[in-house]
Amino acid sequence: MRLSDIDLRLLRVFKAVAETGGFVKAQAQLGISQPAISAHIANLEQRLNVRLCNRGRQGFSLTIAGKAVLDETEQLLNHLDSYAARLNEIGSRSTQLIRIGVVDCLVTDAANPVTQAIAAVHGAFAQLRIRIGVYDYLDSLTELRAGRLDIVVVGTTWAAKAPDDLETLHLYDEKSGLFCAPHHPCAQTTDADAQYELLKQSKISAHSFLNNPIDESLEIHLLDENAEVSQGNIESTTYLTLAGTHVGLIPLHYAKNWVDSGALCPVAHDRYEIVSEIHAVRLQSGTPNDVAVKFWEEMQSLRTLP
Question: What is the C-alpha to C-alpha distance for residues 55 and 95, in angstroms, rounded to an integer?
């Protein structure tokens, strides 16, 4: 088996579940819902072709195979983190450095203050070096905790509070809705009840950190590398939606150009509008450099929420 980015992500989820003692307890560390964690573990079990843990009325426990996989996972991830830390030390000796991580497809949202904050810190530091990368939600938190990012900007599913080791700044709310191609059956009617019946027969794609936020009676296809069609981010969901094979859960700002050109049609817009909270996130511990502090302050002053 050749390791990929998705394998490492799933192994980190498994390690968190094993160390905390169950899916529910792992939520606080991972910052994703229990059903989403369960889906990640099921995906890993399929990829490895082993049952990793027992879950049910008897409580959570690792299988014999699960314990062996955990031992190997701890060695692998510890080695990777140590290696990455050494590389990071080589590349981050300058104090005028800001390392920013974002999830995909936020750049088209006018409420997103990242570009304005970058412009502000660029004017304040003459020798500024900027590193900005696009990450999966879980990968962004992993990189932040490993000290390879200073600040990340993510859409969260935190209903109440973020994991205890993170400081968050609520920047703005991002609205998403369901869309389909003009030739999809859902586009052939504007009647909400008729669209609902058609949705129940449709394949619905959503980006990976969400876990069926729309309606439990609808089948949401989340990230699954073993599925016939796999999608792990908003852009891949949009490809499937434009192709007409799926109805897609897509942010309104990202879908706008295709809606204006007639390439996408809103589906049951009033019934299925989802609001995601977009947060800037940094570690509670540690001593951020002057650039990271300035960037955080600029984000705080630019946010659109009271």
Answer: 47
Question: Rounded distance, CA 242 to CA 267, Å?
Answer: 13
What are all long-range contacts of 86-92, with beta carbons under 8 Å and residues at least 24 apart? 88/146, 88/147, 88/148
Which residue, 89, 114, 130, sits at the end of a domain? 89
Six-digit token string for 79: 């080695």
Cβ neighbours of 267 (radius 10 Å) = 27
Confidence class for position 101, pLDDT limits 50, 70, 90: very high
173-209: pLDDT as tens digits? 888 889 999 999 999 988 878 888 888 888 888 765 4
219: CATH: 3.40.190.290
Regarding whether 166 and 117 lie in a shared domain, the answer is: yes
Q: Supply the angle between the helices 23-30 and 34-48 in degrees, to the nearest 10.
A: 100
Dist. CA 274–CA 276, nearest whole Å: 7
Q: Note whether 194 and 287 are same-domain residues.
A: no
**Nearest residue to 188 via CA among 205, 201, 175:** 201
Give 133-168 pLDDT, tens digit per residue: 998 888 888 889 888 899 999 887 655 567 788 899
Number of domains in the chain: 3
Cβ atoms of residues 274 and 153 within 8 Å: no
Which residues, listed in sequence order, are joined to residue 274 by a DSSP beta bridge?
A: 176
Asked if residue 268 lies in contact with residue 285, where contact means CB atoms within 8 angstroms, the answer is no
Contact, 152 vs 280, CB < 8 A? yes
DSSP 70-130: HHHHHHHHHHHHHHHHHHHHHH---SSEEEEEE-TT-TT-TT--HHHHHHHHHHH-TT-EE
Same domain, 252 and 121: no
